[in-house]
Design goal:
198 residues; mainly alpha; Tetracycline Repressor, domain 2; 9 helices; 0% strand; elongated; transcription; TetR_C
Length: 198
């Protein structure tokens, strides 16, 4: 692994645990065992390092979106793969919180270039979810209560809210329970309307 990638990985862990304003180049230098000058060589400013972390996450979303066009498409499997990734990361503490989610909570205090990258991450994720939900509805697998865009935003909010709730309670299973309920709601048919008696 290159020094640059080690720096990005270290920053990712620190942001997930402490947020952008909770870590410094000194923390990264100590963790990676390099001098601060070496970090500045790769990333002149702290926001450059944090932006590299976010851009890696965005690249994964783009890669997964492209993969949707290949092979058999299973919308439920796509959503379970996404939520399952976070369920595992929260359970084994490898990634207890999405780095973009942590940064979004600090958005008013972030440098403009980093804030823009964070917003773009959420736009990419929302677009991917909208695509999955649209295809799922077309296949008769999902019953959407609103537009695919609204459902995508709601699903994203549910996942991030579940992460926050699991962290607040210190109980990873909370995330899994909330997500399971959300997936069940998507797949279920809406309740029939009451028939008025004449």
């Amino acid at each position: 692994m290159t020094t640059q990638q080690k720096l990005i990985d270290s920053a990712r862990r620190l942001i997930q645990m402490r947020g952008y304003n909770g870590f410094s180049y000194a923390d990264v230098a100590d963790e990676v065992q390099v001098r601060k000058a070496s970090i500045h060589h790769h990333f002149p400013a702290k926001s450059d390092l944090a932006r590299a972390v976010v851009e890696q996450s965005r690249a994964l979303i783009v890669e997964q979106t492209a993969a949707l066009a290949e092979g058999n498409f299973d919308p439920e499997a796509q959503l379970r793969m996404y939520t399952g990734y976070w369920e595992k990361c929260i359970a084994d503490a490898t990634a207890p919180f999405c780095v973009a989610g942590m940064l979004a909570s600090e958005l008013p205090t972030l440098p403009d270039d980093l804030a823009k990258a964070v917003r773009s991450h959420f736009e990419d994720l929302s677009n991917w979810l909208e695509f999955v939900l649209t295809r799922g509805a077309q296949m008769g697998r999902f019953e959407l209560q609103g537009s695919a865009r609204q459902e995508a935003e709601s699903f994203m909010a549910m996942v991030y809210g579940a992460m926050l709730t699991a962290r607040a309670y210190g109980e990873p299973k909370v995330f899994a329970d909330i997500v399971a309920n959300g997936l069940k709601r998507l797949a279920s048919s809406p309740a029939p309307k009451a028939v008025r008696k004449r």
